[in-house]
Amino acid sequence: MIDLYEFQAHAADQIADRVIAYYNEPLEFAKGRTTKRIPFIQLLSSITASGKTIILADTVASISHGISIKPIILWLSKATVVVEQTYANLDTGGGLHSLISDFGVRSLAEYDSTEVAHERNPFLFFATVGTFNQKDKEHGSRKVFQSGIDDTSQSTWNALQLRPDPDGNRRPLIVVYDEAQNLSDQQTDLLMELEPDAFLLATATQRLPKRFNEEIIDILYKIGNKTDDDLMTTVDAKAVADSGLIKTTIELVGHQAPMEQVIELMLHELKQTEQDGKAFGLQGRPKAVYICKTNVVEGSDERDNHKQPFAHRQAPPIRIWKHLTETLGVDPAEIAVYSDLRVDKNFPLPNEFILFNGGDNDYDDFIKGNFRHIIFNQSLQEGWDDPLIYFAYIDKSMGSKVQAEQVVGRLLRQPERRHYPADRLNMAQIHVRVESMGVFDEVVSLVQKKIQNENMSIKLIKSPPGKKNREEYKPKSVKTVPVSAIITDSAEEPINRCITTMTDYRDDSGANILGIGRTTRVQKIVGQPGNESFIWEEVGHSAMVLARWLFTREVRRVYPGALGIAMTSSGTGTPTKFDAWIGLGSNASVHVTNVAKEVAQAFVENVYLKLRKPNPYVVGPLLQQSEDVALFQHALHDGYENLNADEIIFAQALDRTNLVWCRNPPRTGYGIPLVEPGKTENFYPDFLIWSDNDVYAIDTKGPHLHSDAMRKLVQIRPASPTSPRVYVRFVSPGLVTEGGPQRDSTGLTVWSFKPNGNRDFAYYDSVDAAVSRCLKPDV
Q1: Rounded distance, CA 715 to CA 727, Å?
Q2: What's the CATH number of domain 6-235, 3.40.228.10, 3.40.50.300, 3.40.190.10, 3.40.50.720?
Q3: Strand bridging mode 748-753 / 759-764
Q4: Which SS3 state, helix, strand or coil, does residue 656 take?
Q5: Does domain 241-469 have CATH number 3.40.50.1110?
Q6: 248-272 residue pLDDT tens
Q7: In a 3-state reduction of DSSP, which class is residue 276?
Q8: pLDDT digit string (tens) for 350-400?
């Protein structure tokens, strides 16, 4: 079972709810005796590694549950590799199949009109746009326009236009298009022939072809009164970054130096990152990519003569390969060249030179090779973004057209979907070889624009040519903090009580389980084979869903963690009351929804945080610009960069205690899980202070963040009565009470806990007094 992140579940639910609502009340035009229905559209804007496939799969599953007729999903992408990867993940046995377990998953070439007409389950068909993107369908050679498997008189395309279910209803058609910026006018015309009910377009831009705007979007705007917000679902980029799915930092390092020197410096950084990986448990070894021109002489636009011995070749991929193997000692077995490098049969490449130049045909072998150094031009396959790629070399000399901003997406994905204590393991470095500062500034500007346009919540660091590199600040000693976990034991009994109150509707006569809801118009297929037509009929009851699906969906909306102990199956395969079929909008669905909310609330009210003994958090090294670092005597590191004025005052007060303390990095440092529902799942306090065996986690909060602080001020139980403790404290400027900040006040307020467990707000005139209060343990 796949557990969705909150931002994934929110996006999937929003899209599904909008599509279902529009399906029940669509925009239609009457033309004579025919009715034209305008398809709905949802644009999904999400950054790399946010889980587009998971979001879209969960969306179509919810749509299937929420409408009365089981749909067909046509899942498209331009890149064959993307389609194959998604197909493998969603097919039976794939890692994501549980999201759509009731779907029949097929390639479009396997479309069987008899199967579609006789099976009651929904279907998902995969295809590349090249499968059908040709105007002359009658004489086309692609499989989708050839005869169907079971009926040679009917093409797959015509069968897909009919798509009957066992009751003679025309199945709704939902078109999912991954990387929809590739959508063309021609594709739009062909897809509109199928009369789809909705388009789900995953794209980072709202730029769509003219035909699509004319046929759909303009009409939804002008007549359907839809707005941009109605048609767009944006995944919260900050939540993606906080989750650990992407790296936190991109560093652009400029070089005005020969290729050999730039790559040597980059490999030095790669080795340092590998050492940190070994120290902090990175699974796998960091990798690097090299983006350059292919069949030209290094440093010019002159064509490289491929009809000469390998030793004389000057093509950039060959020169980089030589430098890596002959000078830097990289094993040739770790290097792959993925490009259309020209090779003459009379002057073959060395046996150890691994070249992939067959495009899609070579991709599987390339992936299996697990290479650490990949040399390619801009044509490397769409869909390839190995999480272990930490470094990129880009040659922008001699008017190179390589677009550095397009490389960013290749480096964003984070290994193991978690951040590490060492800065190097959470960042990607792009080393750019340039001829002038002006070129580097242009690269920086384009990368910044991409980050802003796609709402990437990542930090961009600029190191222009000649600037001193950031330095590593290692901890002066080994310091650890016990990690806390959410303990659910006390929540099991109240959750079971809630579930016990849920009515069993398996034998209901229909009075409670039939949803009255709205009347929905569906298409019936009439006529003889080869001469079919459609008539509209009204269906007066809502879709029937399993109580389990509705319960799970509603719990997930409040607090997904509750599903871990809310048992909806018997464990032996014996049906339970969660296997009852109920109609959406029925009395039964209202009841199940209310029980789900009670279960989620019972979870939040009865779980607690407790420290674990094994695997504590270990404070790691920091990469900082030395001129920006404020130095301290007793800090765990020599100093910290980018402290604001208030933080420096507070840090100086910590230093005066003579205790060891450190600045805790956001997202990558010591995190405390949060029980209260909200956008963030973990809280990263600003400072950590060690006193005796205990640790104090202190966060300096502005008075405007009162409600946020109330959610994050938590008590954490020790692993045992004699184990170390972690105490959470907040410090706010001015006078703060339970009701909020008081106007025009000075001094500082320390938030902690009273002996009875209630929140305590203690006011102090000086920062030293406030720090002293922070370091008093709770009773």
Answers
A1: 7
A2: 3.40.50.300
A3: antiparallel
A4: coil
A5: no
A6: 999 999 999 999 999 999 999 999 9
A7: helix
A8: 999 999 986 666 777 888 888 999 998 765 556 677 899 999 999 887 555
